[in-house]
């Protein structure tokens, strides 16, 4: 019936889809026929050339997926549309593809080339979504392609694309764990990233792929601490959790040096915070303090997960007296929705077992409302019990008393247990509680009475006073109490204290013997026990009874009881061949330790608080233990960082802010490590915690767009630091150079192969593997603008970021200090190369992408845009003949199959200009027309951006004096005032990257010619409207031309 | 991370499923259904359910369960908070997050989920960014799209994604520039049977509706900022400025959002705006009588509105016959809930409710004490006394229209009742001033001596 109802309701809500869809499910035969019909129509819609129809079809298909129906048979028809121009269709196809690619791997491969092409798109959103889909297609064959794409995207200039690259890493890792080493290298690079957008995702990838590699964190630790406030909230959670584990391995326990016994601690809490001061442990490591200080503001986050992450960080890492700061934010979360509430309460319950002082002042917040769901009530009850102390017990008991009158019997039972726990923990109220519990014995509710009996039993063991009266009262209850646990408890009590209630014992046993057969097992066992105990103490009255009970037990169904009876019989009434036990009293009435009533959250904090494992109290998959603090802190210098290169972005304010913070963080280490005196000062500082944090971090956080003098200050410090950090760096330098060389040798091996792979035109005839299917497809799709990745063996192994292999003698001694960097500026729009009129209706645009060409790192990659403004469609576009000067090579673009009228096609060509500005002249045939192209590169485009340290820059500049130095003086237009604008103008003419400069009036840029890798150093010295441009370059002509170009660019109004 | 999300309605049907890693078979939901069936109320379903190989983390909103499937360790709050964000986004897009709307808008919801999670890790959760990426559907846009062939999906990366104010849309333009602030305070309290306050807390939040062109930079200051000592902020608020000067300085998101929330803890004295006088007496065998009166307490001269009293009666109560001087009263004999909808309280003529209670035949006097859950609302009053001083705007030329509104509402506001049985010794009444040596747990004197 219910099912019927659901189906009809479904039908009502889906007018758009034919009714048959639902009705069909009733009979299978019918199902196929209608299904077929329906799909037919979808297929037609997908095959049509109207976007509207396609979109409609895709929407219906997505609805099917969402409902769990399987449209996978439409795969071929859908995948075709991956090239659709309509962005929404495309998006829906992506969704479909990701869902079903795993099931139809061969067909899915057909789409790969589209993504490869999209990876080169100038639009960052398209690049990113292509990478997302490509990496989400779980087809093992494409793992190498994805690897290449990730590597490439990790170096993308758009932080959004880099973020997506970080997301793709775990996907590839789960697809092919063998790629781990390479992936770790990418993660390492991404962790270095300065964009806050990227960091969170990089840490996510780190956590999923290589959480054991703490060595990757060292260098980034301070950066992470300083930037964490600006990271998006999800990243914050992961970073905080990761740093908690990291800090546990790197710092010593802040609470060990002067261990404070727990009891004393609570007592002091009663008095004042101030008295706590002398017990404060030694000052923390500067980095440890940095983490705590920077995490603190996040307690104010609106995201409960972030607040929880900070709370657990403080709980696990902070000195005892500081943990209290997290109490109030946690209390705030208690008020949230029930889901959040239960997680937070679990955490508080765990914390309150050991750190009762944290929540004691707020215990009223845990008072129970009737509207709370039962699990929440029980948790609150546990917390209240944990918080109970002499000061609040009277209030608490009054509150408990109200709870006992509640309508929910489970809750009442829990309350009684809570009272029992309070009574046993706080000696002052034990008797009061006991009296109250005894009063409850006369309650009408069976469950309440039973629960009280059990609790009283536990309490009596630890309490000597008044036992007799209470037990007497309970004995009188035995006829009324039915719940087995309670009956068993009463019987046990009689047996245990039989000397005190000697009068009643035998009589109770008599009654019990009568009803023995009808009792529960639990009770039977206790009757047997009681009989034995009574026999031992009072054999005169009970021998017969005891034997009778033992006989009853002998024939019981339960073997437990039979066994017990046999055991007891042999002890009490030994047969001849068994040696009698001398003193059975010692066995049966040995003093027993009182049970300890404690919170069930007691030992949960072995799990990291706030984790899934902690919540469930089960070790979850993939849970990593929180390591214990080391005895001795490992070397802290590993976290020192060499001075950063200036961030490459020209306009983003965001980066400049983070940069300034970066500088700050740099400042810290020297500040602390330079003199031991200062370290002590730091210790002092941390004592006056709150006020200090405010001012200190305030200056850190304040918007840093302005304040040039402060900047100055920072820079001078960073110089100091450099000298200090030098020694530490040297080891690491050799390290990185090692890895560099190894990667070089690898490339050397690969290169010849790569050359083979790309020079021979990609042919599909030789083999017919899945990968070749891709190739086929490459040819079939006409408008591929790039030659890219022909996935033959060498294809995707071509070096993307070439390293300095052929370096001039100048830099051979320290090659590694030059680092390739991404271009600071890339033109988005093509410039006109051949106008419409000159090209007879064909317009050619040109754009320098400033990215290394795949074929060879010495080539500049140039994007050509062909637009057909003629009335007719034109045939294929290809490079016809080229007559090139010596030293110049061209890597052709693959043939573009057609150029319909009104359309634009792009193609990527690679030209090695051989470090000259001579024009590359070649012919292009479009259909039957021939166009003569002459590409003369601007001097700035045959250079590639490299970055290096300032000291290295200066040392190289000294070697390039005299003839090799070209100067020019430019006058700035009044509109250009700040450094940003000046830099921007430089970036527009030359592909160079900024070098950090210690003087705010001097700007430095580094570059390298494409072919011979000759260093090009640009220095700008600004004095009001005048700017002196100095270019140092071994190639004098290039130097002069560049100096003039830069001057012109700066002069321009 | 999050592998899949299932949407399950109250009846136990899967409304929607979406997978990020390999598809997880629907059968995993069977475990959830088992728990769902065994729970007496939907709220009692635990938020995390461990099942073989996986964990199900769920969120209940509008009788719709959002169930996330997790395969390995991840902070549960991370997932819960994300699911909450999903609900929030759906509400922003379609006004409400309920089953029928989701069924209607499968495609948009699917696209949204696809943007919000990448491989189970949140990608874009800021509503302004999502709205630029996937435009919320409305009639006008649907028509223009069919005519022009454009789509609801943007092809460029929203500017917010890369800016340092990701919450703000670029190029906002309004004809009327307005900024409205609602200071809403919810009073949580437990009032004992004598009218004393057992505990009282205030949870306040400031909801904003800001429609300002360009990139305004706002500063909101309070007359008495020290009142709220535990605060949380929307990411747009500059925390350092608050620490130093106790003002809220921020570049606001466009549209509706919660600027800050604060908590005035139980240690402070909280003004309770309402009182309830009650008297319930039972006579053995015959039933009982009740008498309720409601009146305003500390309201600073403001009227208490939308007052509703709700009492869940003990199990043995069969029926209640009630006469009220104001509003409507009803008793549901199945759930045993007595509901009295009063409305506005006129301080000169206090609303009252009198009536008799019928007990099930043969039932004894109920031993459990019911509570009154009270709902009310007071306009133009902030119970904590928080007051906005002024709002300044920098960065733009125009003069915005500004408005502040205060509302005090009942949160979890409950009044405890005592049932007095006339034939039994009223031990309960005496236990109230319990002190150290006397814990008078409620007990009738008739014991089994």
TrEMBL record, chain B:
Keywords assigned: Coated pit, Membrane, Protein transport, Transport
Cited Pfam families: Adap_comp_sub, Clat_adaptor_s
Membrane topology: Peripheral membrane protein
Record's subcellular location: Membrane, Coated pit
Positions of the MHD domain: 176-416
InterPro entries for this protein: Adaptor_comp_med_subunit, AP2_Mu_C_sf, AP_mu_sigma_su, Clathrin_mu, Clathrin_mu_CS, Longin-like_dom_sf, MHD
Main location per the UniProt record: membrane
Gene3D superfamilies to which the protein is assigned, alphabetical: 3.30.450.60, Mu homology domain, subdomain B (2.60.40.1170)
GO cellular component labels: clathrin adaptor complex; clathrin-coated pit
Protein name as catalogued: MHD domain-containing protein
Biological source species: Artemia franciscana
């Amino acid at each position: 019936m219910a099912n019927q109802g659901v189906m009809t309701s479904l039908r009502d809500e889906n007018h758009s889809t034919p009714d048959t869809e639902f009705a069909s499910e009733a009979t299978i035969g019918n199902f196929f026929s209608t299904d077929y019909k329906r799909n037919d129509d979808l297929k037609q819609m997908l095959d049509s050339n109207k976007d509207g129809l396609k979109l409609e079809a895709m929407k219906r298909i997505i609805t099917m997926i969402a409902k769990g129906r399987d449209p996978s048979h439409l795969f071929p028809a859908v995948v075709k549309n991956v090239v659709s121009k309509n962005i929404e269709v495309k998006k829906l196809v992506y969704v479909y593809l990701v869902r079903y690619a795993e099931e139809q791997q061969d067909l899915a491969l057909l789409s790969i080339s589209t993504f490869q092409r999209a990876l080169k798109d100038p639009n960052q959103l398209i690049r990113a979504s292509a990478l997302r889909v490509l990496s989400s297609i779980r087809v093992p064959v494409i793992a190498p392609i994805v690897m290449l794409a990730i590597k490439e995207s990790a170096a993308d200039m758009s932080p959004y694309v880099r973020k997506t690259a970080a997301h793709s890493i775990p996907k590839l890792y789960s697809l092919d764990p063998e790629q781990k080493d390479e992936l770790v290298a990418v993660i390492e690079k991404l962790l270095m990233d300065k964009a806050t957008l990227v960091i969170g995702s990089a840490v996510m990838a780190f956590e999923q792929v290589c959480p054991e590699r703490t060595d990757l964190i060292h260098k980034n630790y301070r950066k992470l601490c300083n930037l964490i406030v600006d990271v998006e909230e999800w990243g914050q959670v992961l970073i905080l959790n990761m740093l908690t584990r990291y800090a546990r391995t790197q710092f010593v326990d802040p609470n060990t040096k002067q261990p404070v016994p727990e009891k004393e601690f609570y007592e002091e809490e009663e008095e004042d915070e101030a008295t706590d001061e002398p017990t404060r442990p030694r000052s923390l490591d500067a980095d440890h303090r940095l983490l705590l200080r920077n995490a603190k503001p996040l307690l104010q986050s609106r995201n409960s997960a972030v607040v929880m992450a900070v709370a657990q960080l403080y709980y696990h890492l902070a000195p005892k007296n500081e943990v209290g700061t997290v109490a109030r934010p946690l209390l705030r979360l208690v008020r949230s929705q029930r889901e959040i509430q239960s997680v937070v309460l679990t955490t508080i319950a765990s914390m309150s077992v050991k750190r009762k002082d944290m929540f004691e002042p707020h215990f009223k917040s845990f008072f129970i409302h009737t509207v709370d769901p039962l699990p929440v009530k029980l948790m609150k009850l546990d917390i209240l019990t944990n918080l109970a102390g002499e000061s609040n017990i009277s209030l608490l008991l009054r509150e408990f008393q109200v709870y006992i009158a509640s309508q929910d019997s489970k809750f009442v039972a829990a309350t009684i247990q809570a009272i029992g726990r309070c009574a046993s923990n706080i000696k002052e109220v034990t008797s009061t509680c006991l009296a109250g519990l005894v009063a409850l014995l006369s309650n009408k509710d069976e469950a309440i009475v039973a629960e009280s009996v059990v609790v009283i039993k536990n309490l009596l063991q630890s309490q000597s006073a008044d036992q007799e009266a209470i037990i007497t009262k309970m004995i009188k209850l035995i006829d009324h109490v039915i719940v087995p646990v309670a009956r068993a408890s009463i019987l046990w009590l009689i047996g245990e204290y039989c000397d005190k209630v000697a009068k009643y014992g035998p009589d109770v046993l008599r009654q019990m013997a009568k009803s023995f057969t009808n009792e529960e097992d639990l009770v039977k066992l206790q009757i047997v026990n009681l009989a034995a105990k009574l026999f031992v103490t009072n054999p005169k009255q009970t021998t017969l009874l005891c034997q009778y009970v033992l006989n009853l037990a002998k024939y019981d169904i339960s073997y437990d009881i039979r066994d017990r009876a046999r055991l007891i019989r042999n002890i009490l009434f030994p047969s001849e061949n068994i040696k009698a036990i001398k003193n059975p009293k010692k066995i049966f009435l040995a003093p027993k330790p009182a049970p300890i009533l404690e919170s069930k959250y007691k030992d949960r904090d072995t799990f990291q608080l706030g984790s899934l494992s902690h919540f469930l109290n089960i070790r979850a998959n993939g849970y990593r233990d929180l390591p214990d603090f080391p005895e001795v802190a490992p070397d802290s210098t590993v976290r020192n960082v060499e001075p950063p290169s200036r961030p490459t972005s020209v306009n983003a304010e965001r980066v400049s802010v983070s940069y300034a913070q970066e500088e700050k963080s740099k400042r810290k280490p020297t500040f602390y490590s330079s003199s031991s005196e200062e370290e002590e000062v730091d210790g002092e500082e941390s004592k006056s915690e709150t006020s200090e944090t405010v001012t200190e971090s305030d200056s850190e956080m304040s918007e840093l767009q302005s304040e040039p003098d402060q900047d100055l200050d920072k820079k001078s410090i960073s110089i100091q630091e450099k000298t200090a950090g030098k020694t530490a760096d040297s080891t690491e330098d050799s390290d990185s150079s090692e890895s560099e060389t190894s990667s070089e040798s690898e490339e050397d091996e690969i290169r010849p192969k790569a050359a083979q792979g790309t020079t021979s035109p990609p042919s599909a005839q030789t083999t017919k593997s899945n990968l070749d299917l891709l190739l086929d497809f490459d040819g079939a799709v006409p408008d591929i603008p790039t030659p890219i990745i022909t996935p033959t063996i060498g294809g995707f192994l071509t070096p993307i970021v070439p390293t300095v292999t052929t370096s001039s003698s100048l830099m051979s001694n320290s090659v590694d200090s030059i680092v390739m960097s991404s271009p600071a500026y890339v033109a988005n729009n093509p410039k006109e190369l051949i106008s419409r009129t000159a090209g007879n209706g064909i317009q050619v645009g040109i754009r320098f992408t400033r990215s290394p060409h795949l074929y060879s790192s010495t080539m500049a990659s140039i994007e050509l845009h062909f637009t057909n403004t003629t009335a007719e469609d034109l045939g294929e576009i290809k490079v016809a003949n080229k007559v090139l000067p010596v030293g110049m090579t061209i890597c052709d673009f693959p043939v573009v199959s057609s150029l319909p009228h009104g359309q634009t096609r792009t193609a990527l060509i690679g030209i090695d200009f051989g470090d000259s500005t001579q024009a590359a002249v070649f012919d292009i045939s479009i259909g039957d027309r021939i166009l003569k192209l002459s590409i003369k590169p601007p001097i700035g485009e045959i250079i590639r951006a490299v970055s290096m340290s300032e000291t290295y820059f200066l040392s190289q500049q000294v070697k390039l004096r005299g003839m090799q130095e070209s100067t020019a003086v430019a006058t700035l237009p009044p509109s250009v005032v700040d450094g940003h604008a000046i830099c921007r103008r430089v970036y527009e003419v030359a592909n160079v990257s900024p070098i950090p400069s210690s003087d705010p009036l001097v700007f430095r840029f580094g570059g390298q010619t494409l072919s011979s890798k000759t260093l090009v150093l640009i220095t700008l010295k600004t004095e009001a409207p005048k700017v002196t441009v100095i270019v140092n370059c071994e190639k004098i002509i290039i130097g002069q031309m560049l100096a003039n170009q830069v001057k012109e660019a700066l002069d321009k109004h | 991370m999050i592998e899949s999300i299932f949407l399950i309605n109250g009846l136990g049907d899967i409304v929607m499923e979406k997978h990020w890693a390999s598809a997880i078979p629907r059968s995993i939901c069977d475990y959830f259904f088992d728990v769902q069936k065994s729970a007496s109320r939907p709220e009692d379903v635990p938020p995390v359910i461990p099942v073989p190989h996986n964990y199900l983390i769920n969120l209940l909103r509008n009788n719709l369960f959002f169930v996330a499937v997790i395969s390995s360790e991840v902070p549960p709050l991370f997932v819960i908070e994300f699911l909450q964000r999903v609900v929030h986004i759906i509400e922003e897009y379609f006004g409400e997050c309920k089953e029928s709307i989701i069924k209607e808008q499968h495609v948009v919801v699917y696209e949204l989920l696809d943007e919000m999670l990448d491989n189970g890790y949140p990608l874009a959760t800021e509503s302004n960014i999502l709205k630029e990426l996937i435009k919320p559907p409305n009639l006008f846009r649907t028509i223009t799209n069919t005519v022009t062939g454009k789509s609801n999906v943007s092809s460029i990366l929203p500017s917010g994604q890369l800016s340092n104010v990701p919450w703000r849309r670029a190029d906002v333009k309004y004809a009327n520039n307005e900024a409205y602030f609602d200071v809403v305070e919810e009073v949580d309290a437990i009032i004992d049977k004598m009218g004393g306050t057992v505990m009282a807390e205030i949870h306040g939040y400031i909801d904003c509706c800001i429609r300002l062109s360009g990139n305004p930079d706002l500063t909101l200051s309070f007359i008495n900022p020290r009142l709220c000592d535990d605060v949380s902020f929307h990411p747009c608020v500059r925390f350092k400025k608050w620490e130093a000067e106790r003002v809220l300085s921020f570049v606001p998101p466009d549209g509706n959002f919660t600027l800050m929330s604060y908590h005035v803890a139980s240690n402070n004295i909280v003004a309770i705006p309402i009182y309830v006088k009650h008297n319930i007496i039972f006579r053995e065998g015959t039933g009982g009588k009740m008498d309720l009166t409601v009146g305003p307490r500390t309201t600073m001269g403001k009227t208490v509105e939308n007052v509703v009293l709700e009492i869940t009666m003990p199990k043995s109560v069969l029926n209640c016959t009630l006469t009220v001087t104001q509003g409507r009263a009803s008793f549901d004999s199945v759930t045993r809930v007595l509901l009295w909808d009063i409305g506005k309280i006129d301080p000169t003529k206090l609303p009252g409710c009198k009536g008799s209670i019928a007990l099930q035949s043969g039932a004894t006097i109920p031993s459990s004490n019911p509570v009154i859950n009270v709902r009310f609302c007071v306009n133009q009053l902030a119970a904590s006394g928080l007051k906005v001083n002024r709002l300044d705007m920098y960065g733009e030329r125009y003069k915005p229209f500004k408005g502040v509104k205060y509302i005090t509402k009942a949160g979890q506001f409950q009044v405890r009742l005592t049932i007095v049985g006339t034939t039994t010794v009223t031990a309960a009444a005496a236990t109230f001033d319990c002190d150290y040596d006397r814990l008078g747990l409620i007990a009738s004197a008739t014991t089994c001596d």
